[in-house]
Amino acid sequence: MDNPLLAHADRDRAIQFANSRVSRIVNTSICKTVLDDRFKVRTDKR
């Protein structure tokens, strides 16, 4: 690319996109583990 600012903006956009994808995956896995732990605790108390 001729314009370094454009390349920098594209790189930042790509990084933000990757970070949002990763954080979404991590959040869903954390939610799953938390729900599983709560379900286990609930079933263990019975």
TrEMBL record:
Keywords: Plasmid. It comes from the Bacteria. This is Uncharacterized protein. It comes from Rhizobium rhizogenes.
